Backbone:
């Protein structure tokens, strides 16, 4: 069997996204708490997501929403990884405050996000090497 890369590109991208979801779920978590919400966005839902990001740009004027809202339209899938807000009480300083007690209300605990990001970044590089391509990502 001969498979042309163009014919399998979308399914390969979606499989890479699924592996990233698994990497996020299995990443070490602060205090062992699983506060993750992960999903893979494909097809028409990418267009809906882009429209929401463009609306956020109109509301806030933040150029990141316009730029990323346009960029995701070129993607075969979008991996979304989020954490529910909960103070971990680790006094790690990742949020910019010396201790959890000093953190202002509404500032999210970033200890969990930092660990997830590190693990997903490693998985992205592994997948990129495996499929011999370059990948870019942001969090």
Residues:
């Amino acid at each position: 069997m001969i498979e042309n890369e163009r014919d399998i590109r979308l399914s390969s991208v979606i499989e890479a996204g699924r592996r990233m979801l698994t990497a996020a779920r299995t990443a070490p978590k602060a205090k062992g708490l699983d506060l993750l919400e992960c999903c893979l966005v494909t097809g028409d839902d990418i267009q809906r997501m882009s429209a929401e990001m463009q609306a956020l740009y109109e509301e806030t004027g933040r150029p990141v929403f316009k730029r990323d809202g346009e960029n995701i339209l070129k993607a075969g899938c979008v991996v979304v990884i989020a954490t529910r807000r909960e103070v971990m009480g680790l006094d790690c300083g990742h949020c910019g405050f010396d201790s959890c007690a000093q953190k202002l209300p509404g500032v999210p605990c970033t200890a969990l996000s930092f660990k997830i990001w590190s693990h997903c970044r490693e998985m992205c590089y592994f997948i990129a090497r495996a499929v011999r391509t370059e990948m870019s990502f942001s969090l």
Remarks:
- The chain has four helices and two strands.
- The radius of gyration is 17 Å.
